[in-house]
Structure formats: C-alpha cells, structure tokens
Specification:
The complex is a heterodimer of chains A (274) and B (207). Chain A has 274 residues and is of the alpha+beta class. Helices cover 19% and strands 26% of the residues of chain A. Chain A has one domain. The chains are: A alpha+beta (274), B mainly beta (207).
Chain lengths: 274, 207
C-alpha cells in the first residue's frame, strides 16, 4: 500500500484495524472470549508479553486474576492507593504482620499504614516470592547482556519505572515488589532455593480492598538460574466484584488481618469512600 | 575487627529510642556496637549524591542467595550497585526481612492500645527530613542485631536475640553514603529484649 502521501499513509494505518497479536489488550474487555465472570463485568482483559509490563487503576472491590499461560510468566507486582500513592505495598509489613514469608490464598497484601490493599482470594500456583524483588538494569546486563526496556531482556525495575511514570510516579516511589508464579523457599541456614513454576495455567486472584494503582512487570524472577532470559505471556483479567465484607471468613481469619480490615474500613468510611 | 583509628569526635552514642544519621565517605567504616546486648538497630542507607538510589533488601538477598546478613554481605542498592559491605560481624546473622516497626503496623501486630508508643518509622521520618527525605523514600530496611528465623512452612517472627553486650559489626562504605538509623523503641517483642538501650556509632577513616 502506497504511503508516499498523507492519504496513502492514512489508508495504510487504518487497514491495520482488526489485526491480532498474541500479547495485546482486548478492548472492550467484554469481548474477551472466555470471561471468568458475567461478561459485562470485565473491566480489563489483556495478555502481557514476556519482558513487558502493564498498569491500571482499579476500583475497590475489583477482582484481578493473573494467569501464567505457558509456565514461564513471573508477575512482579506493586500496589499504590490510587489517589495517595505514598501509601503503598509494604512487603516487609505484609510478611511480618502475618507471621509468614510465603503468599497463598487468604493472605493479605498490606500497606505501610496498617491497612489492606488487596487480598489473595484464589491461588492455584503456590509458587510466589516476597523476598527477592525484581531484576535491575545492572543485573540483567551482567546476566543477559542487556536490561534496557527496548532490549530482548528488559529488567523489571526498568519496566516499573515506565509504568510508574505513566501514573505520575518516580523511581523513588518504587518500593520492593513481590512476584507470582516463580517460587523461592528459605532453608534453615537462610539460603534460598529457587523452586520455579508449577507449569502452565497457574493463576492467582487478588481482590482490591481500596482503590488501587496496579503496576505489573512480566519478567524472569531474579533468582531464575537459567542462562537464557525465559519469560512467557501473562494473562490479566479484572472484573467488578465486591470488597471483603465484615463477617467474611477472610475478614476474621487472623487477629492481625481483622484489625487491618477494621483500620481500612474506618479510613474509607471517614473519607466517604465506603 | 578492622584496624582503622577512629577519627576523634566521630563516635556517637545513640540514646535508647533515638534516631541518628551521618554521611559516611567512600572507604570509611561505620562500627555499630550493641552496648547492652540485643538492641535492634534499624538501618537505611542511601547514595549520598543521589538518594533515589537506596538500600534494596531484595537485591541484597537475591544477590547473596541468603536472607541473613553477616560478614561479607554486600548491601546493594535498588540499582544493584554496592553501597556498603559488612567487613566484620561478631554476632553471626542479622535481619533484613522484617522491616521497621511503625505505629500503624503495631496496631495490627499487637492492638490499638500501642498507638501512642514511639516507633522506628517515626524516627526514620524525623531524621530523614533533615536530609530532604520523606515517606516515599522509606523502603525495607536492615535490622542489625535482630533475629528473624523462617520455618519450613514460611512462618517467621522476631525471636530472642543472639547478640550480647559489647558485640560489634563494621561496615565499609563503597561510595559516599547517607546512613539513617533508628535505635528501635519497640517494647512489644523481644527485638530489644523488651528494654530499649543505647548503641554506639563509630566512624573510621578510610583504610
């Protein structure tokens, strides 16, 4: 198709409509072929390429399902309260307050303000990590020869910087992250065993307990010992649902979690948000 | 123990529950002494010339393949560059998983009755503000002299310490760094033996 003229270039660009890529957002999300909920409730449906990132602002009560389609996704996650991003995921408080280093169904993702950001409401993988964070430009340059976003081996932190910038945030806003689908276990002497993936199809579902800015980088786990940069597509689906209510088993599962839900409810009520 | 001669006037005793900070120049050392035993020293370190580059617990952990810090541990930044190295440690292991105590997390861990108690995050905020640092600049920190084992099922917790009166550790600055310290005021768990006490900071000349 001729592109020497503005008219030709316009025709050429418009002729792309309807093209499909393996990794792409489906807009509107309601067109997603196999929704896990009533189709009209989907608000986000995307396949994120290996070595790529995505981000979204999600309303309180939204459920977010991440799926490791082929077994080598690793979803690095950061959460911020949407309109006051200085309140954000605190991995140290998340593990300390709940007396456990590992993530699983029923665990809460806590902010630094003694409140719940999200709860883990389903998990078919069980291989997650709160200890190792994500990869960096320096680390990936050492390991794979490059770590820039445009390279074949982008670093998680470089992608988080881009996702953060698009939400008005700077590198200093990026705390330690957690990751799903590639496991790490702590041995008695404190050393780490990389247990990797459970294989294709593992999924984890988070419930937003406040309005959240969600940043996701799909890059290899930094402790992945394989010499090649191995990163496969991540499916991201989100749909309208409800926040955890008082009396729910999750609300009362632990005294620490109950107080976190109470702090969250009181904060939101005072703001007129719940 | 390193063999430097401490620079006169550069030893400070940090009172129980108090904060402290200092720039440590590349090559200089910082020796922290647990004067009375089992006193958690919450610690953050920044590139003195670009504080967006700051300590990263996860980078430090995955680079050394171990959650405990001791002699030889290199404290890495969020850009995976060395900030300081532990060159001597008389205790054996220190925590970097548990983070700092805060008034807010204390309400979850112990209950709302703890709300009026002082906490490390308040020390970090107060001391950090003297250097232009704010809440956004606080990240997962180091807890020198704090003992946090992780069980097979992932259960972790702050348990009785393994330090003792007079035990020291020494860090070498790998570039000009800014160190923030909170001498932990926590009284609801054994990180300070339920009795916060003073610690000593000594800056040594570049060797």
């Amino acid at each position: 198709m001729a592109t020497a003229t503005t008219y030709g270039a316009r025709d050429h660009a418009r002729a792309q409509e309807g093209a499909r890529a393996e990794a792409m957002p489906v807009v509107p999300a309601a067109d997603w072929p196999a929704p896990p909920c009533e189709a009209g409730h989907l608000v986000w449906a995307e396949t994120v390429a290996g070595g790529n990132y995505t981000h979204r602002v999600l309303a309180r009560g939204t459920e977010l399902r991440l799926t490791d389609l082929r077994g080598d996704a690793c979803a690095h996650l950061l959460l911020f309260v949407a309109d006051r991003p200085w309140e954000r995921l605190n991995v140290a408080d998340t593990v300390k307050v709940q007396w456990n280093a590992y993530l699983s169904e029923g665990r809460l993702l806590l902010s630094d303000q003694g409140r719940v950001l999200a709860s883990v409401v389903a998990d078919t993988s069980g291989r997650h990590d709160t200890l190792c964070g994500t990869s960096t430009l320096v680390r990936n340059t050492e390991r794979y020869g490059d770590g820039t976003p445009q390279s074949p081996s982008p670093a998680g932190r470089e992608l988080f910087k881009l996702a953060a910038a698009k939400n008005g945030l700077e590198p200093r806003d990026l705390p330690p992250s957690l990751s799903f689908f590639q496991g790490v276990e702590v041995q008695d002497d404190g050393s780490l065993d990389f247990t990797g993936s459970t294989g294709p199809g593992g999924s984890v579902t988070l419930r937003a307990e406040q309005h959240l800015t969600v940043l996701i980088a799909n890059v290899p786990h930094p402790a992945d010992p394989r010499p090649d940069y191995t990163s496969t597509p991540l499916e991201v689906l989100a749909w309208r649902a409800a926040p955890t209510p008082p009396g729910d088993p999750l609300w009362d599962a632990t005294p620490e979690g109950r107080r976190a839900f109470l702090n969250t409810a009181e904060f939101l009520a005072a703001r007129g948000l719940a | 123990m390193s063999t430097h001669t401490p620079t006169p006037g550069r030893t400070a005793v940090v009172a129980a529950r108090a904060a402290w900070s200092s720039v440590i120049r590349e090559g200089e050392t910082l020796t922290i002494t647990d004067l009375h035993g089992n006193q958690a020293v919450d610690f953050l370190v920044y590139d003195a010339h670009d504080t967006a580059v700051r300590y990263s617990a996860p980078d430090t952990i995955h680079a050394q393949g171990n959650i405990f810090l001791t002699t030889g541990s290199v404290l890495l930044s969020n850009e995976h560059t060395p900030l300081m190295t532990v060159v001597d440690d008389q205790v054996g292991r220190h925590d970097t998983v548990g983070g700092a105590c805060s008034k807010e997390s204390n309400t979850l861990r112990y209950g709302h009755h703890t709300w009026s108690q002082h906490a490390c995050v308040d020390n970090f905020l107060a001391e950090g503000s003297r250097h232009g640092l704010g809440k956004r600049d606080l990240v997962s920190n180091i807890n020198w002299y704090m003992n946090v084992p992780v069980e097979k099922d992932g259960t972790l917790g702050i348990v009785d310490g393994i330090s003792a009166p007079g035990l020291r550790l020494t860090l070498r600055a790998e570039r000009d760094v800014l160190v923030l310290v909170s001498n932990c005021p926590q009284i609801n768990n054994p990180c300070n033996g339920f009795d916060p006490t003073a610690v000593e900071m000594t800056i040594g000349a570049a060797g």
